[in-house]
Design brief:
five-stranded antiparallel sheet; alpha+beta; 196 residues; single chain; 6 helices
Length: 196
């Protein structure tokens, strides 16, 4: 397997992880609450990084709002920090994609040495997402507003899968760079032995 193949296959995994990151930011399903009404219907609330939705009035509103932060500034600061971290992760993913394209389009030397910066960028993106995911899990476990039947939902899971893929790709590219032989380039012409 050549380095170009390793980079191309890893790029597919990277793009899938980027799609998960963007989807987790867009869909407001980080923490959800479902409950049945006496009439047999279901009430559903979801919290996203920037919106809160309710099935009662079938609307979504900006979140967190001033009323949410008046008594609990700590919660709002943490929640907004996660929003910032996930947005920063998308910016870093864009930088990583540009580095990836430069390495793939470059020559043999870029493919043989570019793994260091690419692995570092993937690791940074993964750690940023892991920090955001961990902060949401901390709020879920420790904030009074999230008692059962609240649960971590699909956006949190997508973020978790995304950072695991990013860190796995960083490790895989590093391992491939160390273990794969150098790409075939020019070979030296053997010296002709002159007979006397």
């Amino acid at each position: 397997m050549t380095r170009r193949t390793v980079y191309a296959l890893a790029l597919v995994g990277f793009l899938a992880a980027c799609a998960l990151t963007l989807t987790s930011i867009i869909i407001p399903r980080w923490i959800s609450w479902d409950n049945e009404t006496p009439s047999g219907g279901t009430i559903h609330y979801t919290y996203g990084l920037h919106r809160r939705c309710s099935s009662l009035d079938k609307t979504c509103e900006s979140f967190p709002q001033f009323e949410d932060c008046r008594d609990d500034r700590y919660f709002c600061s943490m929640w907004r920090t996660v929003g910032f971290l996930m947005s920063f992760a998308v910016v870093m993913e864009g930088m990583t994609l540009i580095a990836w394209l430069v390495i793939l389009a470059g020559g043999k030397q870029k493919r043989e040495t570019g793994w260091k910066i690419l692995s570092l960028l993937l690791l940074v993106v993964g750690l940023i997402q892991c920090a955001g995911m961990s902060m949401i899990a901390y709020l879920y476990d420790n904030d009074d507003r999230f008692s059962p039947p609240w649960r971590l939902d699909s956006s949190w899971i997508m973020c978790t899968v995304s950072w695991v893929v990013m860190i796995s790709l960083a490790a895989g590219i590093s391992a491939a760079a160390v273990t794969l032989p150098s790409e075939g380039g020019y070979e030296l012409i053997p010296n002709e032995v002159q007979e006397e």
